[in-house]
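New to this. Please check this record:
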Amino acid sequence: MGKIFLVGAGPGDPKLITVKGMELIRRADSIIYDYLANDSLLGFAGKGVELIYVGKQASRHAMSQGEINDLLARKAREKEIVVRLKGGDPYVFGRGGEEAVYLADLGIEFEIVPGVTSAISVPSYAGVPLTHREYASTVAFVTGHEDETKAGSTIKWHELALGVDTIVFLMGIKHLKEIKERLIEEGRAADTPACVIQWGTMPQQRVVTGPLKDIDALASKANIKPPGIIVVGDVVTLREKLKWFEKKPLFGKKIAVTRAPHQSMKLGELLTERGAEALYIATINIVPIKPNDRLREAIDRISKYFCIIFTSVNGASIFFDALFAQGMDARSLAGVKVLPIGTATAEFLESKGLMPDFIPKKFTSEGIIEVLEGKVKGRRFLLPRAEQARNVIAKFISDHGGLCDVIPVYRTTLPDNTELPAEKPDIVTFTSASTVENFITLFGKEMFETTSVASIGPITTETLTKHQVRVDIEASRYDIKGLVDAIVETVSRQMAEKST
C-alpha cells in the first residue's frame, strides 16, 4: 500500500508552492491534479510519472468527487508515492478534508502538505492587505459556493455583515449579486469598498474595484469570470497605493517563446518575473547525433587541443554527456582552454567546474573571431556544434594557420504536435535563425502582420529580414537576458509615449 500526499499547489503562481510540495512532485510515482493547480508544476515531475487530470470547473467536471475518491484509493494500492495536487491549500475550501476522511475510513496512509491559499495571496498580489491597524482588525474567509444539497445556508450572514472588518469570498463570482444583496440586507454599508480579482497571482490577473452596491455590475461590465475571489472592506482603498504586481514592466503582455521545449522555461521565467504571460510555441527539437565516433575520438585525444569553442549550451551539454560517458570529467580538460559564445554557455561550463578562459564582447561567431585574433597560428581547436551552422569560425582558423576539428554533435528538427496558442501574442520572440526558419515553415507569416517581433541579435534579424519580416525589437546584448531587457525597454518606452 502506498501513501497519499494531499499537496497544496498554491494560488497559481508556480513559485508560491512550498519546498516540501515541490520535493514531493519530483518524487511522485503518480500525480492527480486539479484545474487550479498550475500545469507548469508538472514539468518538475520525474520521468515516466503518471499524470491524471481530475479538474473541476464551474458546470464542467472531468471527474465527480466520488470518482476522485475511488481513484485515490486505487492508486494507493498501485503506487508508492501518490501526490494529490490541489489548488491553494487542501483544507481551505478545497475538499481536501473530504478526501482525507475518505482515506482515513479506508485505513489508507495519507499526509497533508499545506499550500498558500488564494484567500491571502490573491489580495496581496492585488495590493489589498487583509488587515491593517487603521482599517481592519478582523478577517473572515467564506465560501461563495455552498453545497447545493444542503437544506439551507449555514453562513451567519448577519454576524458576517456587521461583525467582521474584511470579508473574503472564495469561488463566489457566479453568486456575486446574491452575496452583495445579502450583505447589504444584513446591514453592511452599501458604499463599503469591494473588489473582485480574477486569476490572481497570474500574469492574466484582472481586478475590478467599486462600492459594494455596484460591484456585481462593474464585474459584469468588465466580463470577469471564474476563477476569482471577492474582497469586501475598507482595506480595498489601499489598492491604488499598493498594487505592486500590476506595475511590473511587462504586466498584461502575452509573449510567445519559440525555443526548444527543454530551453523554453528559462526565457519564460524571465518574462513572467517581469509580469508577462509566456505562451510556449515549440518550433525546434534538439537531437544529439548518435553514435558519434568523431566526437568520441576527439575526446580521447582532448589534450591535443589548444582550445574548445562552444557556440551554444546545446553543444556544450552534449559534449559533456559524451565526456562523462567515456569515464572522464572536467579534470580531463586541464590545460585546454575553453571559449563559450556568451554568458549562458559560460554559466553552463561553470556548472561543470570550468571557468571560461575568454568571453567575447559580442555573443556571435564574429565576437569569437575577435577573441581568437593573434591566438590561432600553429594551434588546434575543437568546435562541437550543430550539424547545420555558419562556417565563419572554422574558416577564420584555417585562414590564419590553425587547425579546427568541426564536429557536428546535434541536429535541429521540426517538433511533433506543435501548434499556435489560442491567445494571440503581443510579441513573438526568436532566439536563433533556426527558430525563424522553422516557425515560418510550420505556421507561415500571417502572425507577424499584427504581432511585434523580437530578435536576439543580428544573425536572427538577418534571417527574419530575408523572409521580409519586420523586426520591432533587437537585443543589444545577444543572449536571453539581453533579449528580455530589450523587450522591457521597448514596452516601457511605448507606455511612456502613450501616457504623454
